[in-house]
Fold:
Amino acid sequence: MTVTATGLTPEQKRKAKDGYLVLRDFFTLEDAQTLRTRARELLEGFDLESHPKTKFSTGEEVDHVGDDYFLNSGDKVRFFFEETRAEGAFDNEGNLKVDKVCAINKIGHALHELEPAFKELSMRPRVKQVVESMGFEDPRILQSMVIFKQPEIGGRVPPHQDSTFLYTTPLSAMGLWFALEDCTPTNGCMHFVPGSHKTVPVYKRFVRKPGNVGTTFITLKDGIKEPPEDAYVCEPTPVGSLVLIHGSVLHKSSQNQSNKSRWIYTFHVIEGNAKYAPDNWLQPTPEMPFTKLL
Ligand SMILES: O=C(O)CCC(=O)C(=O)O
Structure:
């Protein structure tokens, strides 16, 4: 589905009621190449020696995200490794098993401000039109990332709702997810449960612990049954696609089991008029408040 110069068509708006919308050919192959080239320069340029070796996982099983390197990354460009595990980036002694360029899970979280090529795409009139079409009045950008699923080691992203991480009252988060390469069932494309944003409430939150000493999940509602595996719809997306992701829709992606990488760029918007929870993991700073999109 392509998008018109004035935003989403009525049919696209209807389709977005599934909780996600794939917009093919939203940006060009040249755009994707420009962003990939810059992302690769960033990977090649970062200093491994001074890096705290922070790993990244969206799941609850790894206590990875308590450190300052992660918590203070909202206004920086920082690098997060794949989880430690047999098939991951590190061996049991914590040594990198692969080239550092191939060991990074993601870069975040202020590419939309600090990296001109990413900023340019994020602030494009087309992006603004689409976000406005989705009903945002004063959208603010936050939490931008490049997620690399490197061949054979790129990890899975477990089922989650983005509002768990970017909680506002009322709920308002939406993800914008740009395929910088073809995303396929074997290299870790996205899976969604259509309509789950209407049936599964946001039942937990990912917050800073008091005193900013790490992070934890807190439960908002007990006894929520997540949909079974077979409720997930696999959505392969060619390079150039933009996917809009409702903050409450359940989605996930699998491990890259292929020999082809799967690089994407994503950022999120929240409604500027909504109350942003002061214990959300990511907080604005005086130097870098959340970016006004419009
Ligand atoms: O790119 C992926 O594999 C997962 C991204 C995602 O789930 C998100 O940004 O919320």
User: Anything to note?
Assistant: Residues 147, 157, 162, 175, 177, 251, 253, 264, 266 surround 2-oxoglutaric acid (CB under 6 Å). Residues 29-45 form the longest helix (17 residues). Residues 10-292 form a domain with the Jelly Rolls fold (CATH 2.60.120.620).
